[in-house]
Write a structure and sequence with these properties.
mainly alpha, 118 residues
Length: 118
């Protein structure tokens, strides 16, 4: 984590990958935390891949909701608006109290509306 905070992300990603190879996550919750860290460190494709594994696991509903929400944020950033809407709706169906997912859902819907008005 220190490498991440000191802007040495490449070194941090190498270290994180080494650690994962030696000690894989033991639970879906650990996997979700790892995926989030990968996203924050800029390894988006691997982060999303791990989040998709969380969705296919026996993780708690809140953990799966957060995974859907993170995937939706990536999709929103990539301008994959229909997919983002679906992800945020899935997140909210599992955990209606996820404020960020609700806010991002409205953002994605507004962008879709704006796009259709062009």
């Amino acid at each position: 984590m220190v490498l991440f905070q000191t802007n040495r992300r490449d070194e941090g990603l190498v270290e994180l990958r080494r650690t994962l190879a030696e000690t894989p996550p033991k639970s879906p919750d650990e996997l979700a935390q790892l995926a989030t860290l990968l996203l924050l460190m800029g390894d988006v494709d691997n982060g999303v891949s791990h989040l998709e594994s969380v969705l296919d696991s026996d993780a708690l509903p809140r953990t799966r909701a957060q995974a859907h929400s993170w995937i939706g944020m990536v999709q929103l950033g990539r301008d994959e608006l229909d997919a983002a809407v679906t992800s945020f709706e899935s997140a909210l169906s599992l955990d209606p109290d996820l404020i960020d997912a609700r806010t991002r859902l409205e953002e994605a819907k507004q962008k879709l509306k704006d796009r259709s008005n062009l």
